[in-house]
Amino acid sequence: MPLPTGDTIGILADNLRLRKSVLPIPAGVATRWSRGLNLPRGGETVLYTGMMYQLIPYIAAMSKAQGKVEDSPLANFVRLGRMINKVVNISGFMARPARDMQVRYDGMLVGIARLLEQAGVEFGYLYEEELYSGALVYDLGVDDVFAQHAREVYQTFRKKGVKNVITVDPHTTNMLRSVYPQLIEGYDLQVRSYLEVLAERLPATGPAPGGADVVIHDSCVYARYENIIEPQRKLLAAAGIKVKEPRDSGKFTLCCGGPAESLFPKKALERAAIRVAQLQAVSRQGVTMCPICLVNLQKAAGPDMNLRDISEYLTQGVRP
Amino acid sequence: MVQVNPGFIDQVGQAKTFNAAACMNCGVCSAVCPMGIELLPRKLFRYVLLGVEDKVRENSATIYSCLLCKMCEVNCPAGVHIAENVRTLRYYLYKK
Ligand code: SF4
Ligand code: SF4
User: Fold this and answer.
1) For chain A, where do the domains classified as CATH 3.40.50 start and end?
2) Which of the ligands is closest to the CA of residue B29?
3) Residue ranges of chain A whose pLDDT lies below 50
4) Whose C-alpha in A27, A36, A183, B36 is 20 to 30 A from the C-alpha of A252?
5) What is the four-CA torsion angle of A219, B65, A191, A111, rounded to 10 degrees?
6) Which fold has domain A203-317?
7) HSE on the CB side for A267, CA within 13 Å?
8) What is the pLDDT of residues A54-74, one digit of tens each?
9) Total Cβ atoms within 10 A of residue B81
């Protein structure tokens, strides 16, 4: 029996309404990446993680648990799970993230912050006051819960005097830049992806010589929703990476399958395997720019392919 | 027998933004869909316009398995807002 769609969506929506995140994680875990960086608290310009990179190790653990539940008699208990979840955070029991994965994903955020600093960008961080953007609940169509949450996120920025938001992943960029303005009257935040911010500040020296061949996997959301296609290529070229294009790329990129993960984990993996085959036909080294793409494609590729987040390639030249 | 509910499009809630009527049934969307979703948007959106509510409910798994990746949309010659239409149907199903 597949996962009961309505109850699974219900658990995610209840979590967002009651606990402000689809998968509630301790505040200390969400902000751990920033330890030792001495980022100012708040300010007119903030780096907004939207918690996606911090959530991925939990989502991976959760999806492993869900994969076991899908097609097993345990799927019958998802309804009961939703009822219990209203009182106790059941995701906390189900999802125990792998430590090495947490260290790696935290490291990507550290890398992004260092790249921005190196490029001379002044920014702060909201630490434990930062909220998840609500992207997954929006995709699942739970519009009323999402709209309420979006207003809370916006109010948090307003109270802190934030005017410019630098995002780190495509889904959060899309929510804050294109979806929130349709829901919130007078919305006035300037929202840009760190890739755009960095690309704008690149010195006009042209591509660095040498470097490895790396196949690029564009995120559908960056490419088709936000039209962010060139900044990542310019940045990689400037870092000395030879970017290779797979069969479907840029505006016509093929989805990693990740959005099906929360309800149809097996279908998500099948889609990812098809994309991995396209990427591997070009190179065994791949670059992604969305943590959902990275985790989903890596799961399908196994040890046959070395996939890395774009921040990991770009920080190769930045001292630890 | 097929039950038709002429007010269905209004119940879906956002009749103004649900722009499936522009679809000319060319089939490009189905051909490029990475999920191989044959039903969306050509048939399912048509069911909404025709008011065949049961067909929409019967196919909720299809509606939720869409990746909202917009591969169909970027290839659609009629400019149908396919991903937003799918989200609209999800909202309707969630409310039911
Ligand atoms: S590609 Fe556009 S016009 Fe063609 S069948 Fe699909 S929705 Fe209709
Ligand atoms: S948005 Fe949905 S229907 Fe369109 S190509 Fe992607 S998965 Fe298929």
Assistant:
1) 203-317
2) 1
3) 1, 82, 319-320
4) A183
5) -50
6) Rossmann fold (3.40.50)
7) 19
8) 988 887 877 666 555 555 555
9) 18
